Amino acid sequence: MRSDPMMDRYHAAADRQDWTSAASVMQDALAKEPNSADYHSLYAYSLRRGGASDMDQVFKHYNEALRLDPRHKGAHEYIGEAYLMVGNVAKAKEHLNALDKLCFFGCSEYTDLKRAISEHESKTKQ
């Protein structure tokens, strides 16, 4: 499999926790390849990790990733985490259920989202 220079640039920025640069790289990538579920998911992830105040943009790009690839495990995990950020546990659980169906033998995306939901619920019960 050949290397994707956009993904290489994205991962370099993400490794530095430079979410502004990571989002910028994915924005450029989407301009060239608007039908990439991976690019939409990583753009939304970068916005979210960078502390985006506009969660509508975050949800728009996660939803586009899932429209393009309904089986995109990363997008399901990350949109679930985004729903937790805005306090919508029910929507997060919908994506956990989708992952449960996609990850027949279990997967890290399911485990991570399940843990995030548990942590969110334990914090809100205190």
Topology:
Elements: H1 5-15, H2 19-32, H3 37-49, H4 55-68, H5 73-85, H6 89-102, H7 108-125
Describe, in plain words, how this protein is organized in 3D.
With 126 residues, the chain is mainly alpha-helical. It is built from 7 helices and no strands. It has helices at residues 5-15, 19-32, 37-49, 55-68, 73-85, 89-102, 108-125. Helix 1 runs antiparallel to helix 2 and helix 3 (37-49) packs antiparallel against helix 4. It is globular and about 40 Å long. The mean pLDDT is 93.
Average the pLDDT over all residues and give the rounded result. Answer: 93
Task: Give the helix proportion (percent range).
Answer: over 70%
Q: Quick one: biggest sheet?
A: none
Low-confidence stretches: none
Give the termini separation. Answer: 49 Å
Write the H/E string, N to C.
Answer: HHHHHHH
Structural class: mainly alpha
Residue share in β-strands: under 5%
Shape: globular
Number of helices: 7
Report the strand count. 0
CA-atom Rg in angstroms? 15 Å
